[in-house]
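Marked as duplicate of an earlier ticket. Keeping the data here for the record.
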Amino acid sequence: MTRPGTMPKKDASVIIGVDVGATSLSGGLVTREGEILDVVEQPMHGHGPGSGVEQLLDVIRDLHARARHREIEVEGVGAGLPGIVDVDKGMMTGDGGNLVPEFAKVPIADRIHEVTGLSAFVDNDVNALALAEHRYGAGRGARSLVVLALGTGTGGGIIVNGELMRGRGGYAGEFGHVPVMLNGLPFSCGGHGCMNEYIAGDALARRAKQALPDHPGSKLLALAGGDASAITTRTIFEAARAGDALAGALVDQASEALAAGLAVILNGLNPDLVVITGSLATPFLDLEADLLRRTAKYAFARVLADTTIRIVPSSKRETVRGGAALFLYESERRDGEARGRTTARARRRV
């Protein structure tokens, strides 16, 4: 799917921003100001199972060619990847909740440079989203910001005083693996009671399908067209609104898990702003008051009152700003570090 944008100002430059997901990826030509001029969306494995890396490179080649055709300079490439990323090595580590296993330990940034000749940076996809919210979106002007992205998995990005918090090994913000029910169900990471098990799209749909035989009268099956394998999170929330008991119980657990996860963020980080986004953010717009009521059971009252919590649904078209914001952030960070080293050497010579 392709959506052309407006013509850029004369002599304007763009960044190729890419958002890699478990099921789809999108790339776009994005100006420094965050204007999206062109977008390409593709299924993650359009070339077959395990083809994600080549799919990514194809999208980047396509966008690079479009920019050249329009005589627009491309500064570089930034890509958000759904897993733990070693930013300095430019690759996913293969640890943690990697949603595209074929990317593990592949030098993605180097591969991008090989096919484009451009500088490229990669990071966790939600880290990139947080940088985009801070530079272009709801987080502009905020001293501290947490983005919680709800989708196939659940991820987070943390910014404090303009700096992205990655943690020692890149695990900072992995809120989906925070235990929200201490005696809860096991999750694929090896933990128990992880927020992912109750709110992540894949896990929520799996639990609905597993429970369906014990609820033969559930509306879920009818809404899925009689095919249990077709049940999705959208089906679950729709059935819950229609009064289905099974779907209602699943949504209730999801809301409680999300509220507990929000309290971890609020009490542990005390941010100015929390942005809840991602493909699963939309259903919670109608449940926002209930979600805040549940969160109040776990969070400090003062912290909850002082923190702005916004639910901001997103599309794959908009998330390409994350890659652009990542490229700008890393370019600025590395330039600053280089200037610092130059200054330090000059001081030693004096």
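See parent ticket for discussion. The domain at 174-271+280-313 is CATH 3.30.420.40 (Nucleotidyltransferase; domain 5).
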